[in-house]
Amino acid sequence: MRGSSRETHPSSPEYAKFSIIKYRKFVPSVVSIALTAVIGFIIYRDVPDWSKSFEVMIHGRPLFLLAGLFFVFLHMVLRAVRWGALLTTAKPDIRFRNLISLTLIKYVINLIPPRSGEFAASILLARKEKISSSTVIAASVFERILDLISVFILFAFYLFSFGAGTRNSQKGDAIILAIRSYSIKGVLLFGIGLLILLLLLRNAHWAARIPSKIRKPILGFLEGFRALQSHGVMLRVALLSLAIWLCIALQLWLLLKSYMPAFPLTGTALIVVLTAVGVAIPTPGGVGGYQYFMSLALINFFGKHLSPIDSHTQAAGISNMCYIVSAVPVIIAGLVFLNREGLSLGRIFRIREDLPNNLEA
C-alpha cells in the first residue's frame, strides 16, 4: 500500500508522467482553437460593417443556393462510391449504406481536433465489413492523394487557360506564384511516391525482410493501394475523382452566382483550389480557413464582381454563406447517421486513441 501511495504522489516521476500524458490530449484542441481565432481575426478585422455582411448573406438567390446544395450531397454520394471502388480488391460487395453513412460521419468527427475522421471512419467500416483496418485506412489515404492531384490539375487548368487576366492586385500575383511553386514541387513528390509504391506492390520479395511483428499491418496497409494495379478499377476511380471535383466546382459556382450573377464558371477552378488550401488548415471542420481563402480570392482575383465601395464586407458575407451551405447540411446528416449507428463521441475518442492496436486488426 505504501509503495502504491508513493507512485501516485504528486512529487513522484510516475505522477508527472501521467499528468503529461493526460494533458497532451488537449494540445491538438488548443492549437486548433488558437488557429481558428487567429484566422478569424485576420479575416474579419477588415470587415467594416457586420450588419451589412449579414444582409449580404441572407440575400442570396434561393434557387441557386438550393441547386448548390444538391451538388453538395451528390458530391458526398460520389465520395462514398469512390471509397467502395478503391476497396474492390479487398471486398467487392461493400454495402453502400455503410459507405455513405461513414463518409458523412467523417465530417462530424473532423469537427473535433485533431481531425481524424478518415482514420476513425475507416476503422468503423473495417469492423462492419470484416476487412483489415490497415487496408481501409490506406484506401482513405489514397483518396486524399487523388484529391490533391485533382486540385493540382484544376489549378493548372485555370492557370494556363483562363488565369492570365483575372488578377487585379499585386497580392493576387504573389498568390499565383506561391501556388505555382508549391504545385510543381508537390507533383514531383507525388510522382516519385507513386512510382515507389508501384514498385513495392509489384515486387513482394521485400516483404520477407520486414520484422514479423509489424509485417501484417504494413502489408495490410499496402493492400489498400492494390487498386493501382487494376487498370479497370483505376479508370473507374479516376472518372469518379473527375466527377467529384466537377461537382465541387459546380456547387461553388452556383453558390457564388447566387450573389454575383456574372461570376464565370472558369473562375471557380481557382476558388476550388484556394478553398481546398483553406480547409487543409487544421481548424474544426476547416472553418475560418475556408472563408479566409475564399475572401482572398474574391477580393484579389474577382474584385470586378464585388461592390467597389466595400468589397471586404461583401466577400465575408458570401464566403460565410458558401461555408454554411457546403458544410452545415453535411454535418447535420452525419449526426443523424452517427445516431443511427449507435455511436457516441466517447467511443470515437477510444477508437482514435487506440489507433496503433486497430491497425493490427
What does this protein structure show overall?
The protein is an all-alpha fold. It has a domain of 228 residues. Helix content is 74%, strand content 0%. It contains 16 helices and no strands.
Helix content: over 70%
Question: What would you call the structural class?
Answer: mainly alpha
Q: SSE order, as H and E?
A: HHHHHHHHHHHHHHHH
- The number of helical segments is 16
Mean pLDDT over the full residue set: 79
- Unreliable spans are 1-7, 15-21
Distance between the first and last residues' Cα = 38 Å
Write down the overall geometry.
Answer: globular
Strand content: under 5%
Radius of gyration: 23 Å
Outline the fold blueprint.
Blueprint: H1 2-7, H2 13-24, H3 27-44, H4 50-58, H5 62-86, H6 96-109, H7 117-129, H8 133-161, H9 170-202, H10 212-223, H11 231-257, H12 268-280, H13 289-301, H14 311-340, H15 345-353, H16 355-359
Features:
361 residues; mainly alpha; 16 helices; 74% helix; disordered N terminus
What's a quick, concise take on this entry?
Helix content is 74%, strand content 0%.
